[in-house]
Amino acid sequence: GMISTFLNVERLSDGEMQIRQERFPLPDLVERCTARARALAENKQIEIEVGNMPQDDLIGDCELMEYAVYNLLTNAIKYSPPHSRVLVYGEDGTGDRVRLAVEDHGIGMDKKEVGRIFERFYRTKKAEQSGETGTGIGLSIVEQIVSRHGGAIQVESEPGRGSKFTLVLRCAQ
To answer: Potential cystine with 166: which of 101, 110, 119, 152 (Cβ 3.0-4.6 Å)?
Structure first.
């Protein structure tokens, strides 16, 4: 469950944990994460919309990747206004890469904040004011997981306009 994954992630960030090298389909991963996040979304009347999804297989630790994607989804939901939508979609990347984006129409961030969100325990002022609970540890973990998988995470955001997090991930060949 989430608790054991969290402990695994703690070990991961200390560099102690071996990353499993399994093959798993991107669409299944996204399906599991959106299914898990739906109850949270429905509480706020937020619609999770899954768009185009490449049929690629990823390589790595399925459970950790699920943790990462689920984390991005729950963040997007937390910091979005009621009756809005969160979009999840994939794009074919270049070479052996695939891109997975999570986009919201929430509170957004300015450039300075974007530069700091992967620091441990950092929370933006708006996040603090939003009344949503959070440790600020989520994104630093997402970043750890993705980089340990040889991937990268990109962020585009504007205050009041929302945020888009894009994972650039390695595909199975």
So the answer is: 101
- Residues 68, 45: Cα–Cα separation, whole Å: 23
Q: How many C-beta atoms lie closer than 10 Å to residue 76's C-beta? A: 27
- Dihedral (Cα; 65, 148, 103, 138), 10-degree rounding: 80
CA–chain centroid gap for 78, Å, is: 13
For residue range 128-173, what is the model confidence (pLDDT) as tens digits?
A: 777 776 656 678 889 989 998 999 999 999 999 999 999 999 999 8
- Rounded to an integer, what distance in angstroms lies between the CA atom of residue 115 and that of residue 109? 10
> Taking a C-beta distance cutoff of 8 angstroms, is the pair 67, 33 a contact?
no
Closest among 48, 23, 37 to 169, alpha carbons compared:
23
